[in-house]
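thought: fold this chain, then report.
action: predict
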Amino acid sequence: MPMHGALPHRPANAAQGHAGPCGRSAMSGLRTYLVEDSALIRRNLIETLEELVRVDLVGTAEDGPTAVDWLRNPAHVFDLAIIDIFLKRGSGIDVLQAARSSCKNGKVVILTNFAAPEIRKRCLALGADQVFDKSNEIDQLLRYCERLASEVSGGPSQPAGGGEQCG
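observation:
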């Protein structure tokens, strides 16, 4: 279903994952950390990822300092961090650098409205795995997340609600 930048609303009855006995959710989804200052974009992106990709949201931040603190905590792990560059407080560049210096193995992608060639080049040079434009590359971001979820789970990605207990 092409969305061309628009994020659909998730149905109210969509299934949610629950924590399993080994700390991973019952659906063993892609552990995702989201840094986005717009509450509307954050909510819509979470709903879209939960509907279309098997994700476990492990945390969110709306500013750079909060995100950096979360990333520096050794107890916090992620498979994927999605980071906006321009935040109301702090910078997504600082968050990207913190994610890379935290020695965590998760993938880090930038999702921004300012994906000019020089921004892409700088983010990639600082260690971003991918850079996506919010205005016209949401479909590519979702495909990337689906591939990553499949790699993490060892099989095809399934919408939220599927999956098995870990054990």
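thought: worth noting. Confidence is low (pLDDT under 50) at residues 1-27, 156-167.
final: tokens above.
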